[in-house]
């Protein structure tokens, strides 16, 4: 079984204590976001967990737990590092003073394959122009060169929620203009990635530039990557994640997510999992308990819920 921790919230940044308590008790519960009376119990025993995928913009709070975690589990990080300032990512710590040093320390401790740099999502505004993205992307690439092997990029999807959250930001949406700028940006990024020895890959993109010989199409929960870092992982067995079925270009394999929506405190304007930063703060203050089985609230708040053990699917042939 692959555990996602988490697409819905930044567990390393805000819920490391809770997650490690779940690891020690070897199980976590997750409320069905569409029906609060349906709760899944997910086994976190070492024998059931093939791999953990962490999604984060700041893994510093998890660092003190890595030795304990590494004793029984294999894991890797999808680490988002973008060009955006406080106007779009208001509560992400300073990137050059906090985030990049953290990424480097993780790489030195765990190995360069287990830290994936995500430059995502890419959007264009009057401030964040193609030239600005290239400037920041190259600065970060120069600092991370030799420490990280892979950088994944993707372009923003103009969903209803994104458009609502970004109503005060002058995001460019003209498709003809974007097609031209995105193509130019891809060639710029390819040159920078080659200069600093990064593999450049795209995530959930269908556009023609993904056919470029210097750009691979990949996914976040990547069975091929997991097979590189975990002995005997069968990358032919995992199926496409049903939770991502609406995103046709997404190639992520099956996983069990242990997070909860409306709980991330970064406040990023483009976030699809947090409808309101104010609501996320209230949920954290009023509902989060590090000792609870649930990331948000506790089982006593769901007296009528049916708790079902999530089926375990193993992808490691020998362990």
Q: Please, could you describe this protein's structure?
A:
With 319 residues, the protein is α/β, with parallel strands linked by helices. The protein has one domain. It has nine helices and eleven strands. The protein has helices spanning 11-14, 16-25, 66-70, 95-110, 130-144, 160-165, 175-195, 223-229, 277-286, and strands at 2-5, 27-32, 35-43, 51-56, 75-80, 115-122, 150-155, 199-203, 216-218, 256-257, 306-309. An eight-stranded parallel beta sheet has the order 9-8-7-6-5-4-1-10. A three-stranded mixed beta sheet has the order 2-3-11. β2 and β3 form a beta hairpin.
| Uncertain runs | none
Number of helices: 9
Count of spatially separate domains: 1
What is the N-to-C order of secondary-structure elements (H for helix, E for strand)?
EHHEEEHEHEHEHHEEHEHE
Head-to-tail CA distance between termini: 13 Å
Strand percentage lies at 15-25%
Radius of gyration: 19 Å
Give the class from helix and strand content and strand pairing.
alpha/beta
- Mean pLDDT, to the nearest integer, reads 90
Provide the helix percentage: 25-40%
Physical arrangement of strands within the biggest beta sheet: 9-8-7-6-5-4-1-10
Shape: globular
Q: Summarize the main sheet.
A: 8 strands, parallel
Question: What is the number of E strands?
Answer: 11
